[in-house]
Amino acid sequence: MILVGKKRILGKLYCLVSSFINKNSFALLMKSIWEKLKLKWNIESNKRMAWIFVIFAITGSSIGFVRKPVTRFLFDKSTYGELVWYELIGTIILVYFIYQILLFIIGSLMGEYKFVKWFVIKMNKRMFPFLGKK
């Protein structure tokens, strides 16, 4: 009895969400971007795609906590507004490399080692094209 009720509720919820997606242009745009990324990244399931976005969210949040102590340690300043231009550039470059290390560690711990390794290599080749040439 309870299982039948849950199925009915989930069915109604699915109909509600799918009708919202079909009528809302923003939702259609997001669905389109989602599908393009799935193709580009060669990901089959929506669950895995969502898991990868969770990994990116955790890594991005983590870098927010890491940046401030690094900036304080290097330049004795805590915000980007207080930094001189060359300190700002140095901080951004350092944070970029710390982000990649965190992404690799967090992604590996969360079971996406192969994807994160591919993504970090691809990101570095785009940022530094001379690394890809042999």
Question: How do you describe this structure in short?
Answer:
The protein has helices at residues 2-23, 25-40, 46-75, 85-109, 113-127. The chain is mainly α and 134 residues long.
Please render the helix and strand layout as text.
Elements: H1 2-23, H2 25-40, H3 46-75, H4 85-109, H5 113-127
Helix pairs in contact: 1-2, 3-4, 4-5
What does the model show?
By secondary structure, the protein is mainly alpha-helical. The chain folds into two domains: 35 residues; 91 residues, no CATH class. 81% of the residues lie in helices and 0% in strands. The longest helix has 30 residues. The N and C termini lie far apart (65 Å).
Specify Rg, calculated over alpha carbons: 21 Å
Helix content: over 70%
The overall number of domains is: 2
Helical/strand content category: mainly alpha
Secondary structure tally: strands: 0
**Shape type:** elongated
The number of helical runs is: 5
Give the DSSP E fraction (strand runs of 2 or more residues). under 5%
Annotation keywords:
single chain; 134 residues; mainly alpha; 2 domains; 81% helix
